[in-house]
Design brief:
- The protein folds into 2 domains: 294 residues, Aldolase class I (TIM Barrel, Alpha-Beta Barrel); 88 residues, Golgi alpha-mannosidase II (Immunoglobulin-like, Sandwich).
- It is built from 13 helices and 16 strands.
- The strands form 3 sheets. Strands 7-6-5-4-3-2-1-8 form an 8-stranded parallel beta sheet.
- A hairpin with a 2-residue loop joins strand 9 and strand 10.
- The radius of gyration is 22 Å and the shape is globular.
- 45% of the residues are buried.
- Bound molecules: 2-acetamido-2-deoxy-beta-D-glucopyranose (NAG) (5 copies).
- The site of one 2-acetamido-2-deoxy-beta-D-glucopyranose has 6 residues, from loops.
């Protein structure tokens, strides 16, 4: 064996040793995209419970949202995670190095809050960070991964989001798998949400999505969503580009996460709200609402609870939809569904003017069953007819709007 070959052989051996502990993530969770509520976009790091007691990061906020998930019918549709984000901690670990929830804002502690949420048939998620600090400046998990995994399991946590602020991305390929392994070893199934690829993308590189899927259930790969159509449409463009073919890694147990739903916040028109719902369904995205569930317009709430949209999102095959055509501001997206069905979206990214008419041949959507397809309009479920592969299909789409179709094979 010459010197070079030996070195390479050794390298392979070391890789095997390093990654021997987990072959692929198998915690039985996120078989379809997880659904629930997450505080970040709407409530941020508001810790001022003195002046803003109803909107500050506190046990009161998460209890209230848990109550509303149940009483307003969200839980029945599958929205079961109540997810804490940043700024829930004391600025110091305790004398044993364990994390402590802020004593003023979470007077009963996280274990108590988990019990409260569980008693309602919901699950509790929490937030930490791979680096030395969280993005909001609270104690990070670097050097404490195993202890923090144990703390979360002890508290009865069901989902952990691990951010990447104040971390060295050179460490992530070791740190995220290590945390995944430590979480596994607690014996408590906890959904693992990784911000790992997002930091790699910010660094101008293409993540190794297959490896990430071996350790994470869901992962953020782009910017945080903001309360604006610019932000929503920018995320959709990133997912349309699909750089690194990340759509192909999605499937039961593993999903790309384009970030929270902002329906119910301040910025989106009704058409734009429909776009976010339709596209998050087509993209097989986690559905984490980040708005005040106690103050949502009825038509917005109806979109969040729309059965057809949720059925597309939760399709058991878990295949992520993709942009198959882009012609100026008009995009066509398709998602393969169970029983050879398909959801398709005509998306109009034009900001101005009036509606556009989009016409396609049915076969160009990938719909080739000879007896044709029954097509319904996605939001209403209303039939628009039966179409054979050679037929043309037209729909009119508003600016920054969508026409969503669901095709099922004709009997
Ligand atoms: C830990 O990993 C093993 C092997 O992949 C899996 O069978 C088990 O269900 C996992 N346990 C938890 C708690 O995630
Ligand atoms: C630290 O650990 C010791 C021994 O397990 C325990 O008695 C003590 O209560 C712990 N301290 C804190 C602050 O949790
Ligand atoms: C998508 O790709 C286009 C063309 O390569 C590029 O100009 C654009 O910046 C990309 N957008 C995003 C959000 O990645
Ligand atoms: C990504 O997918 C496209 C077509 O779907 C293919 O041509 C390309 O080789 C793929 N790239 C990688 C890196 O797998
Ligand atoms: C579909 O539209 C194309 C282009 O307008 C047209 O040439 C074709 O005849 C149409 N097909 C059918 C089945 O109507």
């Amino acid at each position: 064996m010459d010197h070079k070959l030996e070195a390479r052989f050794l390298g392979v051996l070391m890789l095997c040793l390093t990654f021997d502990w987990t072959i692929s993530l198998d915690n039985g969770l996120a078989l379809t995209p997880p659904m629930g509520w997450l505080s970040w976009e709407r409530y941020r790091c508001n810790i001022d419970c003195v002046n803003d007691p109803d909107n500050c990061i506190s046990e009161k906020l998460y209890m209230k949202m848990a109550d509303l998930l149940v009483s307003e019918g969200y839980k029945d549709k599958g929205y079961i995670y109540v997810n804490i984000d940043d700024c829930w901690m004391e600025k110091q670990r305790d004398s044993n190095g364990s994390l402590v929830a802020d004593r003023q804002r979470f007077p009963h502690g996280i274990k108590w809050l988990a019990d409260y949420v569980h008693a309602k048939g919901l699950k509790l998620g929490i937030y930490e960070d791979m680096g030395t600090y969280t993005c909001g400046g609270y104690p990070g998990s670097e050097f404490y991964l195993q202890q923090d995994a144990q703390t979360f399991a002890l508290w009865g946590i069901d989902s952990v989001k691990l951010d990447g602020c104040y971390g060295d991305i050179g460490d992530f390929a070791y740190g995220y798998p290590a945390m995944s392994n430590f979480m596994n070893r607690t014996g408590r199934p906890m959904l693992f949400s990784c911000s790992w690829p997002a930091y790699i993308v910010f660094n101008g590189q293409i993540p190794d999505y297959k490896t990430i899927a071996d350790y994470c259930n869901i992962w953020r790969n782009y910017r945080d969503i903001e309360d604006s159509w610019d932000s929503v449409s920018d995320i959709i463009r990133f997912y349309g580009n699909d750089t690194g073919n990340f759509s192909m890694v999605a499937g039961p147990g593993n999903f790309n996460d384009p970030d929270m739903l902002i329906l119910g916040d301040y910025s989106l028109s009704y058409d734009q709200q429909k776009v976010q719902m339709a596209m998050w369904a087509i993209m097989a995205s986690p559905l984490f609402i980040s708005s005040d569930l106690g103050n949502i317009q009825p038509e917005t709430k109806a979109l969040l609870l729309n059965d057809n949209i949720i059925r597309i999102n939760q399709d058991p095959l878990g295949i992520q939809g993709r942009r198959i055509m882009k012609n100026g501001d008009i995009e066509i997206w398709t998602r393969t569904l169970i029983n050879k069905g398909m959801a398709f979206a005509f998306l109009n990214m034009n900001y101005g003017g009036g509606p556009s008419k989009v016409t396609v041949t049915i076969s160009s959507l990938g719909l080739n069953a000879p007896f044709g397809y029954n097509i319904v309009e996605g939001f209403s479920g209303q039939s628009v007819g039966t179409f054979k592969p050679q037929d043309n299909f037209s729909a009119t789409v508003d600016p920054s709007g969508v026409w969503l179709g669901i095709a099922s094979v004709s009997p």
